[in-house]
Amino acid sequence: MVDRSVPRHAQHADAAAQVKPHSHHYRQYVPPPPKHRASEHPTRQPPEPEPPPAPPEKEAKQPRRRRARVGRRKAILGISGLAALTGGTAFAATPGGQEVVDWALGRPDYDPAADPASDGNPGRPGGQQPSTVRTYTEQNESYMASKAGDALRGNIPPGGRRFSSPAIAAQATKVTVPTALAFDPVRHLVSRLTFGPTQKVMADVARVGIDEWIAQQLAPERIAPTPVDTKLRELSTLEMSIADLRAKREELEAQGVRADEEMVQATIARQIWSDRQLFEVMVDFWNDFLHVPAFHEGSAVLRSSFDRDVIRRYALDNYPDMLVAANRHPALLTFLDQSASTKDEVTDNLARENLELYSVGVDGGYTERDVRQAALLQTGRAVKDDRYVYRPDKHYVGAVKVMGFSHPNTTADGGEQAGEEYFRYLANHPSTARRIAARLATRFVSDTPPPALVERLARSYTVNRGAVKPVLLELLSSSEFWAAVGQKVRRPMEYLVATYRTLGVSPETPASYRAASPSRTPFVEGMRQLQQRLQELGHFPAGAPGPAGYPDVFVAWSSASTMVAFWNEAADAVAGTRPMFTYQRPEQLAGANPPKTAVSYVGALAQRLVHQQLDRDDLVTIAGVSGLAPGAAVDATLNGAAVAVARVILASPQHLLR
């Protein structure tokens, strides 16, 4: 058997082994590639899936039905134990059906590698645990299995405990890990629960207190709309239903408008300007966990509804309901070709991802036979005219058993309900609890989440039946959260958004602006440009092409080209190069009455941009960019060097870390 122990999604910085490409074909829409500046390169991201293998050549004579294709991803699944189940005899009597049953039962005379209709990869051997027969590692873990990951593991804070509230935990916790950031609990909280500190948010937390501000963020429906909510109305498709988008497809195409692109643009706008920041952070979190790419076949009609009706609907609610809703949504079913899975020709795409990515994980305790059984249970779920439908006539009837879940599945009409009971079983499984807990700890605490914290979060998830808010409160009341200052590095999208936020860029258009195209408002044109920029950086909302979402660890994004791109973006943002937005002039950033000497001016500018005081040595070094002596007299523009110095500050660890 081929050794597939290398990571599935990435190449480590120090790894020589080639990653075996994913064998499944994901049908996706790919926007035209953006143009790059000569000095920029897109950030490295996990490789896109390679095209599917070429179909086998037909035999000269093929009097029987189409052969069952047996493979790891795009496959006709075998039916485990089918001969003993009702209806199995008739299926096995067909030549293609007999081959699938042979494969499912693991009969020694059936060799998938010798089958010309097979891709030669039957997946993990049936009956063996993924923890001992691995085709790949969990995504973040795969990146951390490197020298850089080993170095980061040394920063795990020792010990850990839960306090009665986040504010008490913040007050009682000492920071012992090395970091470039000062331990300011307010700044730490805002850096992790928003897309970047602003003067307003820092003042809000200081005014109402840590506990009250968190309570407000956990109730986003009570937070007043901001001006961006009005601006979002200019994205004409944002509130359209699937039926509306289907009916107006030709009209929208003629206008050059795509609902999936407007969904991405609206998400970026909300990340920058919405006051419901924790909600937007959790939307981004779930988009990486229960991931459907922004662009795939059918996404122009389907993807914005998935964002609205699945991810945003349950982002701060509960995961079991989210998983059930996702498995009834045409976006997920279309992306993973679920309509092609019927009782006669069973495919495992959605069944495998529900186990491997959307619930228990690769080490969650399932076997290859569990995948096949799950695929049988999910037959009948389909998409017709861009709508989810359940087709009883396509549903396999017969007892199924997946891990600890079993169901008699005795009627075709009852198959849909049986599937939903299974999804809730998965969502409430202890392995799912631990996996979501680890992902949350990785997002909010560090790339090397403390095991004790993960266990406490998993316990909270289990006790609260998958509810999100209690788990977040458990995390925010932990000493591990407050001790992890500076242990997360911003990914490209997070960097751009944080830069716009700290610079105080406004979505309002200056009166002096003249639109280049009458077909788009200035705000819409600006959001299109930001979407394109993030595509260049390799990181935009729901942008990962495969089903795994983006990695959330520093080593996945570290490269020299990333730093160059960040510097270019910082310079553009400080200089206000997207004139459809309103910027503060560089000379305003250091305050209404900026200091009169170079080093003091730089200190005021740093306080404004990174929300902490820098030590004098750092200030002198940064001031050197201006060519001025530390004590040199300066005007409101830092003698013309304000843009250059601001750019350096925004490329510093104090802005790159969160």
Structural account:
By secondary structure, the protein is mainly alpha-helical. The chain has a domain at 587-656. The protein has 30 helices and four strands. It has helices at 88-92, 95-105, 139-144, 147-153, 166-172, 185-193, 199-208, 210-217, 227-231, 242-247, 249-255, 259-273, 277-289, 299-314, 319-326, 330-335, 349-356, 368-377, 415-427, 430-444, 451-463, 468-476, 479-483, 492-502, 522-537, 560-575, 598-610, 616-623, 642-650, 653-656; strands at residues 381-384, 387-390, 400-402, 405-407. A two-stranded antiparallel sheet has the order 1-2. Strands 3-4 form a two-stranded antiparallel ribbon. α7 (199-208) crosses α8. The protein is globular, with a radius of gyration of 27 Å. InterPro entries: DUF1800 (IPR014917). Residues 63-73 have a biased composition (Basic residues). Residues 1-73, 106-134 are annotated as: Disordered. Residues 44-55 have a biased composition (Pro residues). It comes from Phytohabitans houttuyneae.
Structural class per helix/strand content?
A: mainly alpha
**Terminal-residue CA separation:** 44 Å
pLDDT below 50 for ≥5 consecutive residues: which ranges? Answer: 1-136
Largest sheet, described in full? 2 strands, antiparallel
Number of helices: 30
Record field, number of beta strands: 4
What's the Cα radius of gyration? Answer: 27 Å
Mean pLDDT: 82
Strand content: under 5%
Q: What's the helical proportion of residues?
A: 40-55%
Q: What oligomeric state is this?
A: single chain
| Strand order, sheet with most strands | 1-2
**What's the shape?**
globular
Pfam families: DUF1800
Protein name: DUF1800 domain-containing protein
Region (Disordered): 1-73, 106-134
Coiled coil: 228-262
